[in-house]
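Here we describe the complex-level prediction in full. Unlike the single-chain runs in Section 2.1, the two entities below were treated as one system.
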Amino acid sequence: MAYSNMLKRAKNLIFKYRIYILGIFCLGLIWDIFFNPQISDLAVLILGLLWILSIFNFKFEPKISFALAAASYGISFIFQFFNQEVIMEKGASWFFVFLLIGLVQSFRE
Amino acid sequence: MNKIFWLFIALFVFLIFRSWFALGEISAGDAGFYFPETLKGFPSFPYLWVGDGLGSYSSLLYYFSYLVLPLKLLAVLGLPWVLIERIVWYWPFLILGIFSSWFLVKTVLPEGKFRFLTLLIYLFNTYILMIVGGGQASIFLPYAIAPLVLGLFIQLTNYSTANYELRARKTVIAGLVLAIQLALEPRIAAITVAALIFYLFFEYRLAILKYLKIFLIPLSIVVGIHFYWILPTIILRKGSYDTILSSFGWVGFLSFANFSNSLSLLHPNWPQNIFGKTYLMRPEFLVLPILAFIGLLFVNELKNPRIKKIILGFSLLGLIGAFLAKGANPPLGEIYLWLFSNLPGMNLFRDASKFYILVALSYSILIPFSISEIYKRLGPLSKIFLLLVISYLLFLVRPAVFGQLGGTFKTKTVSLDYLQLKDFLNSQDEFFRTFWIPKQQRFGFYANNHPAISAENFLTDTVCLKPFCPLKVAMPEKWGQKCFPNDHCYVRELSYFLNPQTAAILAQMAVKYIIVPFDSEKEIFIAEHQYNHQQREEVEEFLDTISWLKKIDVAEKIAVYELPESKDHFFGIGEEMAEVQWQMINPTKYKVQVKNISRPFKLVFSETYDKLWQTKLEGGTISSQPYMSVLNSFLINKTGDFEVMVELAGQKYVYWGGVVSLATLLLSLGGLIYFRPRKTRQR
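The structure predicted for the assembly as a whole is:
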């Protein structure tokens, strides 16, 4: 009982601060792609989780994830021409993450 | 229109694989070259032991039925090697690859347009072209079969139980085809089955009984047919696989691809195919995933929910394949390492690039789907778009189209020196071994009575094995001055030749000749990814200084040295008057006749020591004891003239398993005849 109450409170809290979660995700994504000098597993895991929470909070459709995947891939594509290998690789990684989340959403639907 | 496309496919097959339709050897990379004398000595039955080198457990056991036996049969029929290699390895890749990928796309997208694109993507992508170029027949052949296996099993999910006979026939066929794939390379078969389970998950979720219904009979056929090597592997725990395949440290080293490479179906070694030499990402390849995944935008408009599920399933399969193919590289490379350590069977995938197969399978379905959906929407521009896509796919593999790829894409000629060496060795009937420094060249002759040992199997900068490791001495500074710092220095690995004991050790290993090969293919004396002729010269100069080696004139470009003495395959120790004659019945059984024995003695069998070697004498057995740490020896307490049988004890499990294999094969073929189409039976 205490556990389900806690879970409910956590859900309410996450829902209450959904806009901040989305904001942190957006800023974090930009930071990770353009300013983080390494390909960080932790960043992928945390930002991925924030995006999944945002999907639940805002009831985003899979096409939003696909759009983010396309945008990430676009970044990867563009930065290839500037020989920015780390940014290119991160764009490809985020393409994978968003596409994976979008596909799982599609299957759930 | 269809005829034009098929003509177009045929044209590009001939253009890209033109060396396969020309005359000349195409041996390169892993694809060996065999003289007819060598091929005729290949075993006609799977044996647990092979006499190559100093003898070892057979790593050929599981692919004996496809990659060993047909080579021997065709050689016995008198066909030349240039034809044998094409009949057994290269042409089947093209025929199977075309048929199999066509079969898959017809199964999953029965009404799909532009299915010929599947062939273009599956057969002409950089991954498989590099595998083919590297002569990895045990990878490219099961790769060619993979879509057929997938298609057959997917068909099984579609047949209703009412159509019992058709279902039974397809079940047997699926089992037999999977058995063939497994005979070529179990790891590729495992990837195909994993892809299949993944596909079925979207159909059946966790309904285990439904999986059993699909897999039980085919997998029983597969296990039954392969029981001849599965049984000894389980009982003896001597895997057909080399244990080095599962070493953890290799995973990171062999993870050459990054995410951009694997998502773009771009082999990291493309196009030069030099092991370990990776290239920068090429922008043109980044369009390929766009073509593959853009189809997802149209999925919701599909009326057929099954096709929607297939497209989503193959998209996910491609993503998982791309993730695994990058191996231990970031991001989340630890997941691969964790799977490697904890998932049973995953430790066979130290080279993660094998998962490119999943990406190729996925894209070969997704791209034709995406193109057909875009084509529908483009109106008058559609034909131009299609032409652009085809041109783009061919542009990606332009080095192959323009004949710039090496490896098996180029024909070569066996140097006259190697023909002279073969004649020289083959003219001698007695048993002896050749010792190649640093390793046997691909055109170097060997046969059952003249096995070839590569020095690098015992001693390199990273390997140090008995009996040569303890013989190492300090190497004078003057040797190795031409080597690159921090790279392979071949001459400095030979210090054991300065030790006078080495001559006696080599003699007891039945080595008669030391050979420094002529590196005609420039693939042995490699330093800093390039052929380094100076290193070969230095090795020869060094061996010239060894007093107990006599240089003999056999071929101009190959250095051959004769040892002062070499022992036979069997010889006696402790009884100098012993006369030992032997006859090989098969690689796991020898009949040895011993004469003039006046006191107990040690019978030495110069093959790698293994405790399963035993001697049968007067109803009893004598187990092998190590001799010189590496050879077998048997202490014989009998005098006079007598005969002993030397046998590898584990071979009996191959025979027992072989009975099950034969019975399963006959039952499966009987099933195929019994469940043949009804109309034919009525006739």
